[in-house]
Design a protein that fits this description.
alpha/beta; 29% strand; Rossmann fold; Arc Repressor Mutant, subunit A; seven-stranded mixed beta sheet
């Protein structure tokens, strides 16, 4: 670790921030006594941190773990969001990793304990916190279960980011297949705290997660620039009320948030034919499954039960993309030839039998331009194409 911190090595890393690491790997090591692969790893990991972890990237003499660790860590945007959900005197992070979440937790909680079973990673994180002048985080290199058994002060919060034991085939995975095995250890955790936050990959099915956990108070679906990055499961000991779903999109210029109680929508959804405006929910809402709730809360009509597109005559602020419908055409040869064949357009399909690729090939439609086309099914089960301009 010390050899990587020499002035010459650090200057080389900074000077090659934008270099091709693969090409660098073919060069001869310029630094005797310092592993060339380790230097290349610092450059590669730093490149990953540039937009994801600007605080680390813009601080001198930061050390990075493997590039994969940096790829898997929370971004600063999502870490700041998580930190806004906690408070109190003590938070224990049972799966510390690179410590980005803890950096932000430490701004909201008096004391943070960073547990990391990998001693090398724990040492890097401790060193970085010193460089970043963070004094209220204690780094412990040990199994978090053992650490939790020995704590004298009960934490206000436990935070867990379980990792999958192996990359099982297919997209479905269960929390019981992760380390630590949270469902198995849940009762043990609740002997120590009343509040638990669990971070999972967005690939985890929400229904499956609910089947494995108990006392779930809230589920936060966190997207950055309309890409879902993580699910946050907030557990409160002995909680019995309905689960609150929060879909949030941390966009560049604004934060879009939409909340509803799971299985609590009592208002009937109104279905209707396309009107003046079209609304497409952001990715976080799509993951939440709150398709009926979005219609009733925003007083918009749904095009079809399975289309998840909405319409209204009055323009409203909406958590997603908003379009003006310029034309509504039928999906038939005559109208497709007249309006879209050999044209340029951005294509989206919702509840439609053909894929975007098939549509482009069939009608020779090029990608791009200012025309947005939604191929979908309307409330009368007709296949339609909405020609739109983005608002």
């Amino acid at each position: 670790m010390q050899t990587l911190l020499s002035k010459e090595v650090q200057n080389f890393i900074l000077q090659h921030t934008d270099a091709d690491v693969t090409a660098l790997a073919l060069q001869k090591n310029k630094f005797s006594g310092t592993d060339w692969t380790a230097i290349l790893n610092q450059i590669g990991a730093r490149q990953k941190a540039k937009t994801k972890l600007p605080t680390w990237f813009n601080t001198e003499n930061i050390l990075y773990p493997s590039k994969i660790s940096v790829e898997q860590t929370s971004s600063e945007k999502t870490a700041a969001y998580k930190a806004a959900l906690v408070s109190g005197d003590l938070l224990m992070d049972l799966t510390g990793g690179f410590g980005v979440d803890d950096f932000y937790f430490a701004q909201k909680v008096s004391q943070v304990i960073h547990c990391e079973i990998n001693p090398e990673l724990s040492a890097i994180v401790k060193y970085n916190f010193d460089v970043l002048r963070i004094s209220n985080i204690q780094c412990i290199a040990n199994d978090s279960t053992l650490v939790l058994q020995e704590v004298t002060q009960k934490p206000d919060w436990i935070y867990i980011d379980p990792s999958r034991r192996n990359e099982a085939k297919g997209k479905v995975f269960m929390l019981k297949d992760c380390l630590p095995n949270v469902p198995e250890l849940l009762d043990f955790y609740f002997e120590t705290t009343s509040n638990i936050m669990i971070k999972t990959a967005p690939i985890l099915d929400i229904t499956a997660g609910l089947s494995e956990l108990k006392y779930v108070r809230e589920i936060h679906i966190v997207a950055v620039d309309n890409e879902v990055k993580e699910l946050l499961w907030i557990l409160k000991k002995n909680h019995t009320q309905p689960v609150k779903m929060v879909a949030v999109n941390l966009a560049k210029d604004q934060t879009q948030s939409f909340a509803f109680e799971l299985n609590a929508n009592e208002k009937p959804v109104v279905y209707g034919l396309p009107k003046q405006y079209l609304y497409e929910p952001n990715a976080a809402i799509m993951k939440s499954g709150g398709f009926d709730e979005i219609a009733t809360q925003f007083d918009v009509e749904k095009l079809h039960q399975h289309s998840h597109l909405y319409t209204s005559d009055k323009l409203i602020e909406f958590p997603g993309r908003v379009f003006r419908i310029e034309q509504n055409i039928g999906y038939n040869k005559a109208e497709m030839k007249e309006f879209l064949e050999n044209k340029k357009a951005n294509i989206t399909t919702r509840n439609f039998p053909d894929s975007v690729e098939i549509i482009r090939k069939k009608w020779k439609i090029k990608d791009g331009g200012n025309l947005y086309c939604f191929f979908t099914t309307d409330a009368t089960n007709n296949k339609i194409v909405l020609l739109c301009s983005k608002i």
